[in-house]
Design goal:
There is one protein chain. The protein is of the alpha/beta class. The chain folds into 2 domains: 242 residues, 3-Layer(aba) Sandwich (Aspartate Aminotransferase, domain 2), CATH 3.40.640; 131 residues, Aspartate Aminotransferase, domain 1, CATH 3.90.1150. Helix content is 38%, strand content 15%. The protein is built from 13 helices and 14 strands. The strands form 4 sheets. Strands 1-9-8-5-4-2-3 form a 7-stranded mixed β-sheet, with helices on both faces. Strands 12-13-14 form a 3-stranded antiparallel β-sheet. The longest helix is centred in the C-terminal third of the chain and has 19 residues. It is globular. The mean pLDDT is 95. Bound molecules: pyridoxal-5'-phosphate. The site of pyridoxal-5'-phosphate has 15 residues, from helix 4 and helix 5.
Amino acid sequence: MVDLGQQYQGIKEQVNTAIAEIMQTSAFINGPQVKAFQKELEDYLGVKHVIPCGNGTDALQIAMMGLGLEPGDEVITADFTFAATVEVIALLRLTPVLVDVNPDTFNIDIAAIEKAITPKTKAIVPVHLFGQCADMDAIMELANKHNLYVIEDNAQAIGANHTFKDGRKQKAGTIGHVGSTSFFPSKNLGAYGDGGAIFTNDDGLAHTLRGMVNHGMYKRYHHDVIGVNSRLDSMQAAVLSAKLPKLDAYCNARRAAARKYSEAFKDEPNIVVPKTVNGCEGICSSCDCHVFHQYTLKITNGKRDALIAHLKEKEIPCGVYYPIPLHRQKAYLDERYKEADFPVTNQLIQEVISLPMHTELDDEQIAYITSTVIGFVNG
Ligand SMILES: *Cc1c(COP(=O)(O)O)cnc(C)c1O
């Protein structure tokens, strides 16, 4: 699904030198590399504050702690996503409220959010799934109207742009009150271990978060708030500094691969290619809204599971993100959830399949993958 070894060849010298230097100085935690990366990412994203932390799940949790959300507060998020999002909501004894998603973009459905808002609702957590922003115009409008926080889970869409209705562009993760991301190795900006970060333009919140990631300490051994231990280590920061200047090129390589996939599939019955929010189906060359963390097809003739078995036989990796909706996961069962409220998610889990997607895919691989998929689904 990903080819991190090949990508390493392009940054090998810089990474090896930086890591050797960290070994020499032994500044494994809180070394100068962490501050440097923080500044570089702030500049890249055009956001006032980046707070590095241990991983993307912690980033979400700490963001919610920093906003002062309290037990019983309702937090609305998508049913069709990775469990980390709902996990931290539940862990903090907040009340997760799962809602359905949009069948074209796979992102949280605006009408479903609106329907789920109650006097107890305190926040919305849009997940920018598979590499493109949820409808942030509508989400910010709803949040302003109902006085809610917006926490963007940007683990899959770092580098993506959101174009507002008025034409203004802003980086994914920097639009809501706070945003989070993950540097898990297979994410679009991946470290060589765990890592994550929180983004905000709010000075006060940034100060709170910086203490929270480090045991609630603002002055050594003075613990002003309950915090956690969640740090990005120096080696991961050095790897990320080597990769960040290449992030836009990485995004473009993913888009180019997505365009080739979609060109091959676009006229095929029973195969639906991913749509971008711009409506260009990922095949327009100027699109910067989607960074294709995943390239996800819908197989509409019931052959998805058979296709998975066939691809396995042909040694083509593939994945189903996600096979079980969160509202049916044992840990998050709630009698409020009715199957009829999740028609889109319930259908997507039967139809979606993600194909290999990374920065090193070549034309030969894409041709082999697309002809194998088409031959089986429509053969
Ligand atoms: C990967 C991911 C996370 C969690 O990130 P980790 O760094 O693995 O903790 C959270 N949300 C989404 C949508 C993700 O894809």
